[in-house]
Amino acid sequence: MSASAPFVGPRPFDTADAGVFLGRGREAAALAGAWPRNRLTVLHGPAGVGKTSLLSAGVLPRLGPERGREHGAEVLPIGRPAFAGDFPLAALPDLNRYTFALLASWFPGEPPARISGSSIAGLLRRRSSAGDRGWGGDAPGRPLLAAVDHADLLFPADADRARHAGRFAEELVEALADRPRLRLLIAVRTENVEELLDLLTRAGLPQGSASRFPLHPFDPDAAVDAVSGAVAGADHPLAASARRLVGELGGSERGIDPALLQIVCHRLWDEAAPGSGTRIARLPELVDRILRDHCLRALAAAASDHGERPGTLTEWFRDAFGRQRRAVHPGRAAGEPSDSVMSALQDARLLYAEGRPGKRRYRLRQARLSGVVRRLDPDAADTVRRRARRLDEAEAAFTVRALEPAWNRAHAVTVAATDVRERAAAECLLGTIAYEQGRQAAAIKHYDTAAQAYGAMGDAAHVGMLLAAVGRLKIGDGPSEAVNRLRAALTRLPGDLFVKTALAQALWYAGRTQAALAILDDALSQDGGTPEALRLRGELLADLGRGGPALRDLDRVNYGDRPSSRAAFALARLTHTGIGPDGTDEVELIDSAADSGPALLRVARVLRLGGEADTAAGLAERAVRARRPPLPRHLHPEAEKLMTSG
Prior knowledge:
646 residues, Rossmann fold, five-stranded parallel β-sheet, 57% helix, elongated
């Protein structure tokens, strides 16, 4: 943000904007004091009320890194569970996306190959025991402050996301128990607070152990401070019109909406500047026009993202929210928008949500919007110029598995972005979305395009991850082709651990297990803590009946969300110690195996060794038919043997 534009508009404030983050001094001081005192603090408020801004521009400048030491605390970067677009998921398809995304944002300098198989507690423990400079874990009594922003991305969840969210919550609770000096702050929308606390309680958090910190819209005096403080000393009509503007946006029992205040001020700063010819005396008309344009752009963008006609969505929105009614309960009738569209309108600062999923009600953010919405022209929405999309919006859509909006937003970034690295990351995300949709050829095309872009920038780390992803996808065309592709990649990047591990996977699929183990041994001689190499070696050793070495490898990694690794651990434990799964573990193993050929075959072997031949035969048959991932051809005879021994 330039010095001549003291309002950020629709985006959140970041740490660099601390000088113009005004009107929240009381809340920032209170939260900066509460965070280090409480093991778990839940910051909550409606969408767009300024939770991210409060953390970035209000609290962090008071706590870290320099001022944090004055308070006796160390502060991690703000974490976010949104999947990072610049990571090719096909390189490591089974990881917990929430855990990986959070650790990557807390530790941006940590190699992805080390993060991918780490638990939250495990990485915190390893970084602390390694003696990293400035770690609270190395100084008795000094708290380590860690924040998780945008926790709403965990909700609502389909079955697969719910499983990952549950494991993610378990890891957060485990980290709190394991690291006594950890102070965790989670930011979430108010309508999701109870669901978040339920999730953490099911994960083992003691009832009542979370401290809540509510964030409300501005009261009129705070809103005036936010405007007048930002323009203090400026030769601009807003300097003398702050209270009048706040009055124009007020009139609601909910207070003054911070997001709409910033949007209006951002436009007024340019449009009512001295010499512009625009008279701020016509303030009501100016505010009406700014809010109308914001509504139309937001509705056009939401419609485009979700494959709808902007005019149709605008007409529905006008009819639903332009009347004097307290709340709207959208259902599933023809013509009504989906949950993802309603969520997009929240993100666009048009709506607040209330109630739990399934019983959600929506309200206009501000009463001042009602008259504007009532006069919206649906035809105008079809022609409005839409604002440029940002990569983080595409990442958020992908995290909640809104694949069509994610694709549209990422594609828009590749078209409009001027930053080469951002375009490369958007191409990578397009590859990951195509992979999730089962479009292998498209995934390879976008990953190759991203690899070329990162290669031109000299970014070998991203090139290695992308080549590993392409190599794994090529296994579907035949293991030999994948091996050849990955050997060529390893010639180009001889020390790349992602490529080495992917090559070992391809060799195993080709039936060359001993060659795969040799590659993994080499990778681990290079870096003995590489989680993916340890995990894969543990799986292969379990298959070979070498239970002890397999357990030693698998005990060193976070395999809770990996069906093949969970099954390999059960197989290794049974062959090494004679201890098989109990009834509950057995059901969980079968459920988690899903459509994974290797996992299903390993569970079948466990059950066959435990005397459950009929169930094992059924699982072996499922293993042969499985597709995500398929069972390697060299293991089909073993599966067929189990099928006939039922």
